[in-house]
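Study this pair:
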Amino acid sequence: MLFIAAISSGRRQLVAVGMIAPFVSLVDLTSSTSFAAENKKGFLPVTDNKDGYSFLYPFGWQEVTIEGQDKVYKDVIEPLESVSVTVFPTNKEDIRDFGPPDQVAGTLIKKVLAPPSQKTKLIEAKEQEVDGRAYYTFEFVAQAPNFTRHALSAIVIGNGKLYTLTTGANERRWGKVKDQLQTIVESFKVTNFLK
């Protein structure tokens, strides 16, 4: 890893600069121009050609390994600020085959996205179509004894898989980072891949 520091650099910038080199290999330079056009200032792209998806994450976040997750990136200073992707095989062809957005979101929140000990609340769930594929996106909060996490998720079916992207932050920082987290969710795309 290469660390470059200027005297006026902040802690977050120093850590982020040192982390660029490992992520360069994750970027598929031949990926579609539409994804490249979506790249926004302050974000870095992830393209997983093996599982067939891509998304943006904020500059300065670090990749970590968590069992059961395909990809996870976390803020190095605020660990509740993170994004994760899970991929499960499915026989379903469309996310709508599981039910309407609010029903599917409620089930995922209670059974997968939050521990049973946390009190959860679905704020909003909706369906949108991107490149001819149905996506469900939803917002929720999960309350633990010592913190509340405010989160956004996107779920979609493609390539014989169910994809779930979830990002969030501590409720106390929600107002400051919600636009950043919304950018992550909006950038999430499932692509077709060769088997």
